[in-house]
Amino acid sequence: LRLDEKVRVVVFKSEVKGVFCAGADLKERAKMDDAEVAHFVKGLRSLMDEIASLPVPTIAAIDGYALGGGLELALACDLRVAASSAKMGLIETTRGLLPGAGGTQRLPRCIGIGLAKELIFTGRQIDGQQAFSMGLVNHSVPQNNEGDAAYQRALALAKEILPQAPFAVKMGKLAINKGMEVDIASGMAIEGMCYAQNIPTRDRQEGMAAFREKRAPQFTGK
């Protein structure tokens, strides 16, 4: 996906009705020794980092349970859409654990330190509407009979992104992600560098031409 220039948006969904991702298999985990657990969690953390660093926008379609590592997967995505009936939470403390695949870092960056601490300390599960009110998800939608309401809303969101200039979207994502890690002055410098890379693109010229000619732009990602 990282190298395929035809890919403009990635939507993560589950093939299991009622479950986005239920997290680690604790029965399997119980059979591991301490070294194996550490290796396993390191691999999960690496996977989440790979997802978070995909150059194109990513959307998690949460139509059911997103617990523990399942919510960490959703947090690694840029955008999240949830059915109002979905259940999500970083429930690790209820099992003698703490989030180990990015949850302690991505949740506070998403909803703020106070709320993140409350959810992690209590291991509480919340529904899609509560998640929306906290800013954990971008959209909360009523579940439909097919059980894929969040996926359908995620597709609609993806279709809003698709017509936009692909390279500009990628640079926008990069500028936001890198800028959030530094002070505002450094962030402005990062934005400037990303903007400079976008200036010589054909898509920028096409965008200007389409505006002058009062037509829809035809972006190619070049």
TrEMBL record:
A molecular-function term among this protein's GO annotations: enoyl-CoA hydratase activity
Keywords: Lyase
Pfam families named among the record's database cross-references: ECH_1
GO cellular component, one term: mitochondrion
Gene3D superfamilies for this protein: 2-enoyl-CoA Hydratase, Chain A, domain 1, Lyase 2-enoyl-coa Hydratase, Chain A, domain 2
PROSITE patterns per the UniProt record, alphabetical: ENOYL_COA_HYDRATASE (PS00166)
Superkingdom, taxonomy of origin: Eukaryota
A Gene Ontology biological process term: fatty acid beta-oxidation
Transmembrane stretches, start-end: none
PANTHER family: ENOYL-COA HYDRATASE DOMAIN-CONTAINING PROTEIN 2, MITOCHONDRIAL, ENOYL-COA HYDRATASE-RELATED
Similarity field: Belongs to the enoyl-CoA hydratase/isomerase family.
UniProt-recorded name of the protein: ECHD2 protein
Source organism per UniProt: Upupa epops
